[in-house]
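Friendly challenge for the regulars: who can give me the structure tokens for this chain first? No prize, just bragging rights.
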Amino acid sequence: MRCPYCNYPKSSVLESRDSEDNQVTRRRRKCAKCKKRFTTYERVEIIDLKVVKKDGSKEEFNRQKMRKGIHIACEKRNIPEEEVERLVEDIELRLLNRKSTEVSSSDIGRMILTRLKKLDAVAYLRFASVFLEFDNVEEFRKQLQEFA
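First reply, four minutes later:
Bragging rights claimed.
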């Protein structure tokens, strides 16, 4: 596991903890070079889920892509990393429990919006501005008024 701070390839595991549902193992690590600590999450990749894009094309579900979008919306907000991870896990679990092996990108976006609305107003509006493709400030203002 490479250190996210100095990119050194060796680290030691300080602590391992399984999630409540035993789906994820959280590991606290310490870099052998810079000595900084970081957290990794280990899970089994068993996802056979296709995302249907707006243009009709299909691609494999990418957990990291979803996580990145949420992370960008939550950037510089006082939201713990564990809370973001919990949100990602919740959405992923709901997607896996669907009967269909295909899900539209708009369904995923709505699921993210619903959870962000409960978590943080600014993160919600940031994500909504991209997901809902506001054409002008008036559309953004209208969304802001609906939220308030």
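The longest strand covers residues 11-18. The chain has a mean pLDDT of 88. Your move, everyone else.
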